[in-house]
Amino acid sequence: MALGNRYKxxxxxxxxxxxxxxxxFGSPWYSDWALENTNEGTAGGWWLRLLAWPHxxxxxxxxxxxVIVGDLKAILVVVLTAVFLYLLPGSQLARARxxxxxxxxxxxxxxxxxxxxxxxxxxxxSNPSLLDAFRAAGAGAxxxxxxxxxxxxxxxxxxxxxx
Length: 163
What we know:
- The protein is mostly helical.
- It contains 9 helices and no strands.
- Keywords: Membrane, Transmembrane, Transmembrane helix.
């Protein structure tokens, strides 16, 4: 019962939506399908490929460290979404459920999470550069801008995160 109540909060619902987005659309199966079956020259194909941006993979031949570093971007997107949803005031201070501030707080949290996840994950690459970090952060923020509305809608209607 306590687990179910956590997801009725705006931050909990938004974090759950972020986790589902990353697990489903970041999976190796979806990523491979999107690359093979979509045309990046069309808006729909571009968006379907964008959904796979924080992709993850699990190869049993890799060491645990390699798996974690390789999947750090996907992990950080979910974790940072939760952090930003708790820090942004829209979901915390909304007096009524379903206000537009909850929607924008969820959307903004996903934009920030995508940008910072990419920025931080770039630091763990071999030979990271400031330019690569900036490019990655831009790609992450772009992902959050075009996909984060889903997290925003998931945040609607949840009660405040704290009592």
